[in-house]
Amino acid sequence: MPRELAESLYRDGRLREQQPAGTYARKVLEQLLIDLSWSSSHLEGNRFSLLATEELFRRGTAGDDADAVMLLNHKAAIEFMVDGVPMQGLSASIVRNLHAVLMSDLLADTEALGAIRTKMVNISDTVYIPTQIPALLEDMLEMILNKARLIKNPIEGAFFLWVNLAYLQPFEDGNKRTSRLAANIPLMLYNCSPLSFLDVSPRDYALAMLGVYEFLDVSRAVDLFEWTYRRSMKKYIVVMESVGAPDPLRLKYREYLTEAVGLVVRDRRSAQTVIEELGLSDERAPGFEAMLLDELKKLAVFNCARYRLTMTATQAWIDADRPH
């Protein structure tokens, strides 16, 4: 990617004020979950519409529908990144776990989840055949990640990861979707607008990848990346503006609220008991009880990650009629 373009995109896409890594992604998380999950799945031929995806996330159950599983896996993988990347950065364990979450229940062999492949992989509609030696694949994956960590501009880092992970094909299946989500890791670390591949058509995406696979030509990929990233930036600027200034009371009680919600949902403790045990009565923490009860009322499987809850635990609590 041309350096001038990367610098321009970084200037336009970054969060202006100094914030902890991952802040941008957390602020737009609910919209990002839908956008990136649907766009990435759509590029894999998923038949769900955007509206059907939103309904699926509200419902939170897939049954035996593989397309629904694909979407819910994307959602869980994005939540995993938002929680894990700020603490662990860009690492092989993050990328391999990302693959494991994305392909959960979609690969016949569960040992292949997050594992460097030992089988030959064929990519449709191209004569390109990726490297087939497992030890070499593992070394090259580490090399790609090491190089990406040295790239100072997160836009360049995102593009580098997207193209090179897709080219390497380190996993048995799900490589392109892993590369799309992994491209967001540098963006999260530097608080840049996420990349959700909004409105990218499967044909345009395939042509961009074909140039990389067969000719080592990234020109189409650069054009596609710039186009879709600028669309992502515009979308999330609007989302950020709609969020408004953070509530000072919510910021004050942030960690207490996470702990309290977790105790109610995971441990099935009553809200009143939790408030007393944490010493957060209205006398000592004005407004906390009302905030906790309101959050418990709004809690759903599509927004539970912010409280470090799994979708399974949250759904079980909801199915039990939200005991609190």
UniProtKB/TrEMBL annotation:
**InterPro entries hit by this protein:** Fido, Fido-like_dom_sf, Fido_containing
Q: Which Gene3D superfamilies match?
A: Fido-like domain (1.10.3290.10)
Q: Which PROSITE patterns match?
A: FIDO
State where ATP binds: 173-180
Q: Which residues form the Fido domain?
A: 90-230
Is this entry keyworded Protease?
Answer: no
Protein name listed in UniProt? Huntingtin interacting protein E-like protein
Q: Which Pfam families match?
A: Fic
Origin species:
Candidatus Burkholderia verschuerenii
What GO MF annotations does this protein's record show? ATP binding
Tell me if Chaperone is a UniProt keyword of this record.
no
Keywords associated with the record:
ATP-binding, Nucleotide-binding
